[in-house]
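Budget justification aside, the reviewers requested a transparent look at the raw inputs and outputs of the sequence design task funded under Objective 1. We therefore reproduce one unedited record. The lines immediately below are the structure tokens for a 365-residue chain.
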């Protein structure tokens, strides 16, 4: 049949969209990091500040290019469906002329599938470039932070414990979030993305700052429910924050600054992992178009070799193929309209071991 499996195609499209949303989340995290000016600035900090700026620039570039990368992926399906609809309106039972079908397939479906394939391949290349721009900075940032870490060997155990507990906190927050499925998109469930700020230290600006990075934000998805409602009374989060504060009390300001900066990097690696695990999502769509290209060319070759149109299965099943493409196109239409709303931002204040709506904090100030 001249159509892919509907459910498989919807899952591939959902994975590709999740990859895009994963990059959105990473960009939010990169742009949320602020380097504070602190007394007696450690030697490793200037390099980290430069690398944070590089991440911020990569986030800006992604946000500028996002629509130009993603829109052609959906348009490839919409254009092919429009072309296929015209072809599927014809029947080999009423027109058994092989030359007619060879010309029709060769001048309609084959050029269009070639265009859809090329557009998806170009999007895949562009997406990988944007992913690489983020990923290239993290090892350099890690190297810079390690200089400060290695200089504080006598506090290494406590620093390690702190970063492990902060990592556990991040994992717990992510576990409370949701992952999109094709069913969520098809049924138009409410999908929201909330900025979850991890506030390490209250003194975060100017001469009052005691650590170089006071915190950062993560973007977490929730489906059908406010993320704040999911996280507000989580006892495990509060217990983890209390453990973090107990460890922080054992560290010097310099060691605390290194450990919190290291934790920020580790959080970035975790968020990066969300989109790297889906790095094969667009290639899966490329493979889909390659398969459709091969099916169309095989039909042309078979007809040229003497196959009769009214006996060739892929032509006899054009109505069924059209039904499949219609379902896929409906899903693409729904996906193009999927609006990930801005959820209520949440602040996790580690120093006070509390979770609160971010705006509530603004209103008190």
């Amino acid at each position: 049949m001249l159509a892919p499996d509907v459910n498989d195609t919807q899952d591939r499209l959902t994975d590709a969209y999740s990859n895009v949303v994963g990059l959105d989340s990473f960009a939010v995290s990169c742009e949320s990091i602020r380097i504070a000016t602190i007394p007696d600035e450690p030697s490793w900090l200037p390099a980290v500040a430069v690398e944070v700026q590089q991440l911020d620039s990569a986030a800006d570039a992604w946000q500028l290019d996002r629509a130009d990368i993603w829109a052609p992926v959906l348009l490839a399906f919409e254009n092919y469906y429009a072309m296929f609809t015209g072809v599927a309106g014809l029947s080999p039972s009423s027109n058994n002329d092989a030359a007619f079908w060879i010309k029709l397939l060769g001048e309609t479906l084959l050029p269009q599938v070639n265009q859809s394939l090329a557009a998806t391949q170009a999007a895949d290349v562009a997406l990988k470039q944007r992913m690489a721009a983020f990923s290239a900075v993290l090892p350099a940032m890690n190297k810079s932070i390690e200089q400060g870490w290695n200089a504080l060997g006598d506090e290494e155990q406590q620093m390690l414990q702190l970063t492990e507990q902060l990592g556990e906190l991040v994992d717990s927050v992510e576990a409370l979030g949701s992952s999109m499925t094709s069913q969520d998109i098809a049924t138009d469930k409410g999908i929201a993305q909330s900025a979850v700020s991890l506030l390490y230290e209250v003194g975060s600006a100017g001469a009052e700052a005691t650590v170089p990075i006071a915190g950062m934000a993560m973007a977490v998805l929730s489906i059908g429910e406010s993320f704040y409602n999911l996280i507000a009374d989580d006892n495990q989060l509060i217990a983890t924050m209390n453990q973090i504060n107990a460890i922080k009390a054992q560290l010097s300001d310099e060691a605390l600054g290194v450990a919190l900066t290291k934790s920020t990097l580790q959080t970035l690696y975790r968020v990066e992992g969300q989109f790297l695990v889906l790095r094969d999502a667009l290639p899966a769509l490329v493979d889909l178009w390659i398969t459709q290209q091969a099916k169309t060319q095989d039909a042309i070759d078979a007809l040229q070799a003497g196959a009769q149109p009214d006996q060739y299965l892929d032509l006899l099943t054009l109505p069924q193929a059209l039904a499949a493409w219609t379902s896929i196109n409906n899903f693409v239409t729904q996906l193009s309209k999927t609006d990930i709303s801005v959820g209520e931002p949440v602040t996790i204040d580690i120093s006070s071991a509390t979770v609160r709506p971010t705006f509530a904090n603004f209103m008190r100030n």
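Residues 203-207, 361-365 have pLDDT under 50 and may be disordered. Residues 104 and 152 are 73 Å apart (CA to CA). Computational costs for records of this kind are itemized in the attached budget.
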